[in-house]
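Human: I would love a firmer grasp of how sequence relates to backbone shape in proteins. Take your time, and here it is.
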Amino acid sequence: MKPILEVLVGKTVEQALLEVMEEEELANLRAQQRAFEELRNAEHVEQQRLEEQERRHREEKVSLKLKICILILVYYFSKSFLSPILICTASLFIQRKLNTSSM
């Protein structure tokens, strides 16, 4: 009777040890899974940050190009608009100088 009891106790202890080892292995796997998910989430957040930074950079670049185009248009418009006025003003100034000189 004693050997049967020893066998049963031995098998029970062995089964308990296997279950404890399985639980430890599962706990380790869960910890690894959590660490992996945290890393993946951190990488995802970083990827979103970089994409947002790139989007802002593109928008700033487009905005800057638009401002440069507007400035160029303003320059040429003002040049074409002011050129005749400057010529006329200079001509009047010269005429007045000549008129005051001849007096």
